[in-house]
Amino acid sequence: MIHKSNVKQSVLFTILIIILLASFVLGVSIGAVSIPPSEVVRIFFSHIPGIDRYLSAGLVPEHETIILTMRFPRVVIAALVGAGLALAGATFQGLFRNPMADPYVIGVSSGAALGAVCSILVQSIWDIPIRFGIPAFAFVFAVVTIFLVYSLARVGGKVPVMTLLLSGIAVNSLLSALVSFCMFFSGNQLHQVVFWLLGGFSGRGWDYVYIFLPYGVVGSTVIFIYARELNAMLLGEEPAQHLGIEVERVKRRLLIAAALLTGACVSVSGLIGFVGLVIPHIVRMLFGPDHRTLLPAVALIGAAFLLVADVLARVVIAPGELPVGIVTALVGGPFFIYLLRRQKNSMF
Amino acid sequence: MLFNILGVTCGYGASPVLQDASVQIHTQDFVGVVGPNGSGKSTLLRTISRVLKPLHGKVLLDEEDIYDIPASRLAQKMAVIPQEQGLNFPFTVRDVVMMGRIPHLKRFAKEGVQDLEAVAKAMDLTDTDLLANRQVNELSGGEKQRVLLARALAQEPKILLLDEPTAYLDLNYQIEIMELLARLRRDYGLTIVMVLHDINLASRYCDYLVVVKQGSIHAIGAPHQVITTNMIKEVYGCDVRVECPNSIERPYIVFNSEEIIAVRKGRERWVHVVGGGGAGVLLFRNLLKSGWKVSTGVVNVGDSDWQEACRLGVSITEAPPFCSVGVDEVRRNKEMMQKADFIIMTGIPFGTGNLGNLECVLELAEKGNPVIVVDNIDIGDRDYTGGKATELYGSLLKRGVHIVKSEWEAIHLMEGDEEKWHPEVSWFL
After folding, report:
1. Residue pairs spanning A and B at CB distance below 8 A
2. Which of B34, B100, B271, B355 has the highest CB neighbour count under 10 A?
3. How many other CB atoms sit within 10 Å of the CB of residue B43?
């Protein structure tokens, strides 16, 4: 376990940022048309006023179009979703003081999935194309699910973690059953539904970034604000209250923030598993449990991880594309097992 | 007045655990809350610490309802050390103690010099500075308890509430933590309220005790007022003795084992033990346990047999300390012996002071009273009378008394076939 010597920490954070930037460039440059990283960097900087005229010479216009309208937004959204899921996962794990918690634990994901499936079916049955139907439906359903689970778990003005988990599980399985029900009757839309459920970023443009951003920003800001409270709540809710924290209020805000963040992630990318569960664990091994360093590190590593996973998803069966959820599980699983075996003492 | 707890009824869900409790706590009080398991002690503490909202009544802190005080301001005044330690995450000790500064910090503010000083002081007082970089999840129960205390002190509170602070601690640390709390109270004017199981510890350190029984307050008062045999009987339903060695201030309780209870049931079989210097202790205990009525004498006041006999409620013919056994005492002792079903002569040393006892036993043996002689040490080795005792002892053995080699044998003998036993027949076991 690496401990908080400040120097070590800033070194680690610098490394993380470099890794994130590198995977960013990698993500943009790799694809059906390969564009060298140096050109990617040049194209990027050529859009910054002031230095643009030194760099724009000799750039291939087609490359510029590919990068700016297709690759760039895709990579950005992958990074945002990675960061968002990892942050939400860390928050849920902290709130529940449970290493098994992940962003999907209270059923937000199956709510979003049901929304997406409904949207696909509605569009195909009545043959009416709805602009951003899937993300909009998914998000609305996710939000409704959050409030459903939350109000189910409420006992006399408080929301005990245990009832929250249990009502989350109950709602989760109910909604999953509904999703399966819809899939059963989805006929030739089944492929689209399954593909969405497995998660991915193909064809996501800037619009999706804009859809995501407001919720992403609000959700993660709230989480960052309550980093210190999350630390105290790791020691238990009563001790946290004795330290002057309004536990129920903080818990409610964090829950809603993390659930909104999850909902936003799921609605733009589908169900990408593993990021929200494993990244917080890995970061905890590196940085310790202090959320003030854990959260930013989680966001950076989550973003980089999903970027790389997306690159792999595009590369392994090129020109075809794997759903990124498969890649995260395939890559993340063994890595996580390796870490577990290496560090046999407590994970949390 | 610091805390004013007014007619608080409190509980989980709708069923109250604590009914109509009123307590006043003043600044710098050291208060112990005692009572049996499930009586509502912890509930009382949780009510004061604003974890449980009372169903009726209210808790005033400095004349202000605690529910009107924002959590962070309350945490600046009051620190709580819960029963559950909950230190399962790999924070370092310093991190955890630093969390005690949360109520003093503005959002986003970094810990300043003042905070670091408070933490350093708290860690110094609790001897946790050596653990500073250790991870709390790897500490022992006692170390964790000290870390929690350090965190509470880092809050710089006026009031410290503790739920069973000694539960995880060995004897050494129990005393240490109580001494530390007493010192904090004295030096920093802290008010301390703690739930304690150990009545003796509570008596030793608390100014007054709140005794909780079945959800209501049974008694409030100084230890010497509250801790009585009756109170323990009423509240805990068990028999103890309350002892006050030096003054009336700090009583302590001693658990009775079945011996006293057996006496109360008392089969009227009476045995008289001639002992002294601790020779009778084993016999007293075990005979009482088997339901015998026991008497002893003549012993000097202050002798270890005398002490034990007093403690166990054995009837005694006593002589003043360090004096020879006088004629009067011998007479009274003989009366007692005559009533006994058995007389046991233990292997005591004889000097001129207690030779009267031997003479008396011999006399009764001659009259045919049943006598058992514990002949475990050669009489020559314990004769300090220049042969007189040896002579008397010799004639005693010839009087058809029963001779055994140990106290246990004497007990077995008496417990066995007492009907068949005749003093005329000597059995050598």
Report:
1. 74
2. B34
3. 23
Residue B119 to residue A202: CA distance in whole angstroms: 53
Put simply, whether A289 touches B (Cβ < 8 Å) is yes
Give the tens place of pLDDT for each residue, A221-271. 999 999 999 999 888 888 898 998 988 889 889 988 998 898 889 888 888
How far is the alpha carbon of A329 from chain B, nearest alpha carbon, in Å? 27
- Indicate whether this complex's ipTM tops 0.90: no
Is some CB atom of chain B closer than 8 A to the CB atom of A344?
no
pTM of the model: 0.72
Asked if pLDDT for residue A300 goes beyond 90, the answer is: yes
Identify which has the larger pLDDT, A319 or B340.
B340
Number of domain units in chain A: 1
A52 band by pLDDT with thresholds 50, 70 and 90: low
B298 preceded by cis ω (within 30°)? yes
Q: How far is the CA of B269 from the CAs of B281, B288, B342, B372, B412, in angstroms?
A: 19, 10, 9, 15, 15
Measure in Å the smallest separation between the Cα of A241 and chain B Cα atoms.
7
CA A266 to CA A256: how far, in whole Å? 15
Q: Is A107 within 8 Å of A143 (Cβ atoms)?
A: no
Contacts of B68 in chain A (CB under 8 A): none
Beta strands in B114-206 (DSSP E): 159-163, 191-195
SS3 A16: helix
Among the listed residues A27, A103, A95, the one whose alpha carbon sits nearest the alpha carbon of residue A272: A103
pLDDT digits (tens, 9 = 90+) for B16-63: 888 888 888 988 899 999 988 888 888 888 888 888 888 888 899 888
Its domain, for residue A113, covers 4-346
List the single range of A300-309, B118-127, B266-275, B291-300 with lowest mean pLDDT.
B266-275
CATH number for the domain including A61? Answer: 1.10.3470.10
Which residue has tokens 């009778």?
B280
Residues in A 9-68 with any Cβ partner in B closer than 8 A: none
Q: How close A212 gets to chain B, by Cα (Å)? A: 26
Structural contact between residues B253 and B241, judged by C-beta atoms closer than 8 angstroms: yes
DSSP A101-140: --TTTTSHHHHHHHHHHHHHHHHHHTT---TTHHHHHHHH
* Structure confidence by residue, pLDDT tens digits, B83-97: 877 788 888 899 999
Minimum CA–CA partner of A285 in chain B: B90
pLDDT of residue A305: 92
- Report the candidate in A212, A171, A168 with the shortest Cα–Cα distance to residue A74: A212
| Longest CA span, chain A | 68
CB contact (8 A) between residue B50 and residue A1: no
State the smallest CA–CA distance between residue A121 and chain B in angstroms. Answer: 46
Which chain B residue is nearest to residue A155, measuring alpha carbons?
B13
